[in-house]
Amino acid sequence: MTPDILVFDSGLGGLTVFEQIASLRPRATYRYVADDAVFPYGEIPAERLVPRVREVIAPHIEARAPDVIVIACNTASTLVLPPLRAAWPRIPFVGTVPAIKPAAEQSRSRLISVLATPGTVTRDYTRDLVDSFASHCEVELVGSRHLAALAEDHMRGVAIDEDAVAREIAPCFVTRGGRRTDHVVLACTHYPLLLDLFRRVAPWPVEWVDPAPAIARQVERLVLGRGFPAGDVARFAAGGEALFTSGREPDPALLRRLESLNLAPAGQGPK
Ligand code: DGL
Predict the structure, then answer these.
(1) Annotated catalytic sites, by residue?
(2) Is the C-beta atom of 42 inside 6 A of ligand 1?
(3) Within 111-160, where are the H helices?
(4) Ligand 1 neighbourhood includes 114 CB (under 6 angstroms)
(5) Would you state the CATH architecture of domain 100-209?
(6) Nearest ligand 1 atom to alpha carbon 13
(7) Where in the chain is CATH 3.40.50.1860?
(8) With a 6 A CB cut-off, is 269 part of the ligand 1 pocket?
(9) What is the mean pLDDT of residues 130-152?
(10) 4-96+212-265: what fold?
(11) pLDDT in tens, 203-228
């Protein structure tokens, strides 16, 4: 008996979350759904984004009733979790939301930054996290318009203009009265794909906070809670299929990446 786990994102960023989940829970059947037909989500207004995510996910729920659904997208999670939970109350949804709490707890300088899409930085959800968990810190909310697309290019092996990356992350680096930013929250699942570049172009070293390992632990808790056995991590290779709403054939670089994650490209979802 293996759990059925659906991992959803606007594009390829959710693969950074999938990788963590699959390494903790290899004994599962995975379906990775990327809404690349309308990627990026970063500047889509809330009133369009909520119905879009529902529309893309609904057929997968009807077809397979997944045991857990992971919304591996901060831009979507900060909006759609309540409507999704209301629509499908029996399915556990795990969201990906900015890891402001751990960053604020660990920061010594009390200057932290949240690097996210333009949508995520404007959400009430994000502002509430700041008020609830980081009131002792100064928090810089940095909305980047280009990083998600740059991350996809980087993953596909396209040469990236490092100056463009440096410009996007520059507002995260703040100095104030002898203190400087020491934690930057990666509040978009695409951004860990660029971590090597971030480290290279950062004006000074910081902790880059990626919540994916914590999300994977949460998924594992839910799966165990639904009665699935823990399984032997060494004995099973996670696998499944990847679906792209655009219907476009994945290019060779993406195919290689999917293959390394044991995901096979499959049919097509709604356009
Ligand atoms: N990966 C998504 C996130 O975590 C968003 C990327 C986009 O579609 O703009 O926010």
Answers:
(1) 73, 188
(2) yes
(3) 118-122, 124-133, 147-155
(4) no
(5) 3-Layer(aba) Sandwich (3.40)
(6) 1
(7) 4-96+212-265, 100-209
(8) no
(9) 98
(10) Rossmann fold (3.40.50)
(11) 999 999 999 999 999 999 999 999 99
